[in-house]
Amino acid sequence: MSNFMKLRNLRSSVHQKKESESGYSSRSSSLSEISKSKNFEENDAYANSSCKNEKHEEKIVNIDGDKVQNLTEEIKTIKLEHTNFQIELEDNESDDAADLLGNLVRLIDSQPSSSSDDDSTDILCRTNENEKGVKRRWKHQSASFCEKKKSKNVETSSEEYQNSGVIDEVIEDIWYVSVMQIENNPVVRFLVKWDGFPPSENTYEPYEHVSDTEVLKEFVNKKFELHEDKIKAAQKKLLQDKKKHYKFYLGKSKKFVEGKTIKAEFDPLEFRCNILAYIYTYEKILSTSEFMKKLYYQNILYTFYEKKIAQEEKNREFVKLVLRKESNKFKLSVENRIDYETVPNFKYLSKVKSISEILSKFGCKCKDSCIKSSKCCPNQKDLKMVYDSDGRICSSTHQMIIECNKLCQCSELCPNRPQSITASLAIFKSSDRGWGLKAKSDIPAGTFVIEYTGELISESEARSRTKCYSKSGVTYLFDLDYNELGKAYYSIDATYEGNLSRFINHSCNGNLQTWPAISCNEDPKMHRLYYFALRFIRAGEELTVDYFGGVKVTAPPTKNSIECKCGSANCRGFIF
Length: 576
Fold this sequence. Notes:
Layout: E1 2-9, H1 31-36, H2 44-51, E2 57-64, H3 72-81, E3 85-91, H4 94-110, E4 122-127, E5 136-139, H5 143-150, H6 158-163, E6 167-168, E7 171-182, E8 185-194, E9 203-205, H7 207-210, H8 214-226, H9 228-241, H10 243-250, H11 254-263, H12 268-280, H13 290-325, E10 332-335, E11 347-348, H14 377-380, E12 401-403, E13 425-429, E14 435-439, E15 448-451, E16 455-458, H15 459-470, E17 477-480, E18 490-493, E19 497-498, E20 505-506, E21 512-519, E22 528-533, E23 544-545
Parallel strand pairs: 3-4, 10-13, 11-19, 12-21, 20-23
Antiparallel strand pairs: 1-2, 1-3, 4-5, 5-6, 7-8, 8-9, 13-14, 15-22, 16-18, 17-18, 21-22
Helix pairs in contact: 4-5, 8-12, 9-10, 9-12, 9-13, 12-13
């Protein structure tokens, strides 16, 4: 195996350049080679003008790894003539490179040095395997560190690394990206400007050498903004060329597509680099190449990746909106493992949109809590208190809840006051019933879960909207019919305006129960609707309610009946 070494005098004013045999990945690739490439025409003028003022004396020595001893005289000569020089080693195998490096350290340390304020020698080593294009400098005083570095299966502590005099050579800028022919194989290469080095030291680097840098992300973002139209046109063309393959993925589930993405170790940043290289490169050299096969496949996956990012961003904005409206009193998330649909659009209402009709101005005069009081709001309506001291339903009798109001003198912590959402919730997409709502934390039996909100509409308006909604088979109308006659004078419609309760699906064996609620000053015909936990609900369980309120249905389904897919043991087979 051969190793490439370069001995460079950093202080000389004479420039002598020789070409290296190590190929495009070598640190010694000359800028003259780069500027001659048709792929870098837009940087040619700048690159050549920048090189004229930079001069260095370089001496290149090609040796085999087992002939290191032959360098002794060469090193001695250079150290006598110059006070500061460095040796650069490039190798394809890190262990061999470390072995050679260790030998060089011992050779240099054994040579006499000329008198100087700084007679240290920098030994630069980069391997393609693990350095990712960032070179490391070991000062020759740290020979013990180099010795340990070369040993196999021996880790170096961070403290030893810091004390060794190691300096990272960072990438200052990326000038260009294109596809280049190397051994008749098109590969992507980046023209890299190294920090602290003149443009004449620019190198071609593969993606693996620059992928972890912020410089690359900035370069790609800037180019994507500059060439947005070209990139979109290129992506569209690539999809058209592989239309059949794209349709195949369109017909698959999100889980299948993301599984392929993970299996292929899809890297969005790599694709963005590749598509840039594609639009910068003469198309003829790309046809039928392995690069194009990979690009076609990446382009299809990237299309779905963009959908996923857009979906996640929109859902995040929705969650922020909801939590802001609800004063951040609970946790909320959105889950969709089925497809790339986002949460349906609707206007969020934390309370029912209506004109409240105040019938009286009564307020209780209870101290602290109304639980044990005989003169609280429910008593004014000859009804019982339904809450316990924790604010959970404790009544075995289903009745109208009479809550305290703003005129009441009881504590704000009184359990008989209107409650808020406290359980952690998640909106999720199901495979057969659309969107739903589930618990993300345990919910004890009797706990208030959520209020059903929406537009409060009249009976006539509800009839009109019902005819319209029946055509789609989807309705969010909830009749307010809790009275002696069972007649709905008003309804709540959450089709266009509402809250998270609109996602609660029907089940013939629901885990939620609906309770009507009103204050003693309001019209009971306009009562509110509260959902309470009918039983203990475990985290991860879907929240469901029987749209018939638990009433036994004896009438057979009609041709307009909506099929029930709750899957419970006592499923009626239809919703209504």
